Amino acid sequence: MKKRIATAVVAGVLMTVILAGCGKSADNAQANNSLFEQVSESGSEQTENAQSQQAESGSSLYDDFKAGNAKAKYTGAGDRTSYLETSLCLEKGKSYTMGEIISALEGSTDYKKASDTTYTMIDCGSDGIPEMLTETFFDPEFTLYMIIKDIDGELVICFDQDAWSRSDLQVEADGKISSGGSGGAAIHIVDYAFVDAKGDYKFFYGCEETLTLYNDIYLYDKTDYQVLPVDGLDVDHIGIRDYYFEADYEQRTHYYEYFMINDNYEDVTTDADYEDSNPVKQKFNECGVKAYTHADIEALLNARAADIGYNR
Questions:
Q1: Which of 13, 123, 137, 140 has its CA 20 to 30 A from that of 41?
Q2: How far is CA 79 from CA 23, 76, 99, 147, 304, in A?
Q3: What is the DSSP string of the chain?
Q4: Tens digit of pLDDT for each residue in 50-60?
Q5: What are the backbone dihedrals phi and psi of residue 116, each rounded to the nearest 5 degrees, phi first?
Q6: If pLDDT is split at 50, 70 and 90, which confidence band does 214 have?
Q7: pLDDT for 245-287, tens place per residue?
Q8: What is the percentage of the chain residues whose pLDDT exceeds 90?
Q9: In the prediction, which pLDDT does 59 show?
Q10: What is the pLDDT of residue 86?
């Protein structure tokens, strides 16, 4: 609201400057410009003060949470856990201390906390208002990550996900999240998401990459699929990337891109490889699945990023 008020005042001053320019002296115009600068600075200061007050309030809550004297509400939004499944031991809409969350996980899984939780302040959406990132390590190899935000004086868990030796996870200072793993030497998976300034978790996209096609490939459309046979193909020099924009695998629409690789697994695809004469393109056509070019995929990713506010 303060931003809107400041904007309205500045707009009024701008109109005054425009009117003053008709037949008024340069001194009057200069005076109006000075007034414009004063109002602009005042509006900026009001916004910064509001952000500072909210940051200080949140900081106090975060300190209380670290000390075990405050609780964070579990909503299930942004829950991407696989082994440390918070949804099985935490109740939606109920608030918990960090100790209660750990105890609940220890009681519902075979894993035990192995070290103290670490707390890092981040800035989701880069709006100057801090959020808290927590990391808790459990034996034998799992780490639980959570992003907690002060929303109107209440701490809320905006995101939680676990990672382990074959599934890495990184949370950047602006709330961007990347996680990846492998299904063997030839299959690699990576997902991108973020928590925005409002505390909303948004899944950007995921990609499963398969290098070399030793077996027939299942091309999915949600839970349905078509089989792409690999007989007659130079399987050692072909890769397929499967892109999707839904976190829930049963709801995914899949966008497939094939590419050519050399003996060092480097992408050596050319425009000619997307022509209808390409044997991989023909296999896609035979099973009725569209093969997207890399340029097609980039256009889809850019449109998706713009739609959800992800800064690529």
A1: 123
A2: 64, 5, 19, 10, 21
A3: -HHHHHHHHHHHHHHHHHHHTTT--HHHHHHHHHHHHHHHHHHHHHHHHHHHHHHHHHHHHHHHHHTTS--EEE--TTB--SSS-GGGTS-TT-EE-HHHHHHHHHHHSS-EE-SPPEEEEE-GGGSS--EEEEEEEEETTEEEEEEEEEETTEEEEEEEEEEBTTEEEEE-TTSEEEEEEESSTTEEEEEEEEE-TTS-EEEEEEEEEEES--SPEEEEETTEEEEE--TTS-GGGEEEEEEES-SSGGG---EEEEEEB-TT--B---GGGGSTTSHHHHHHHHTT-PBPPHHHHHHHHHHHHHHHT---
A4: 455 455 555 79
A5: -65, 150
A6: confident
A7: 999 988 999 999 999 999 999 999 999 999 999 999 999 999 9
A8: 75
A9: 76
A10: 98
Six-digit token string for 119: 């707390």
Structure tokens at 100: 């209660």
Identity of the amino acid at 312? R
